[in-house]
């Protein structure tokens, strides 16, 4: 139940990112659901490998390179999905991933506190 709720709210967060920032386009709620699933899969499978491979750069930049990795995951999702979810360039991916990360933290906090009340 928690996973389904987080997935739906992540799709809503993607719609919010597209509404707030014009560099990210989401054409429908279905596209947002698919994009949220793809971003989740990329963050689960590819992101840890990239973090390990870029550990020296991440240490030198005091962790700021993680923003680049997040942007690459966001941009890759846009490239994989094509017309339903589009990210217009690396700068758009960076800003879109920052907004999406903030919204995801809020979602995680809300879902955790909601489930703790039960």
Automatic annotation (TrEMBL):
Record bears the keyword Nucleotidyltransferase: no
InterPro entries (UniProt xref): Phage_holin_4_2
Keyword Transport: no
Segments crossing the lipid bilayer: 28-46, 53-77, 89-116
Pfam families noted in UniProt: Phage_holin_4_2
UniProt superkingdom: Bacteria
Annotated keywords: Membrane, Transmembrane, Transmembrane helix
PANTHER family: SLR0284 PROTEIN
Listed name of the protein: Phage holin family protein
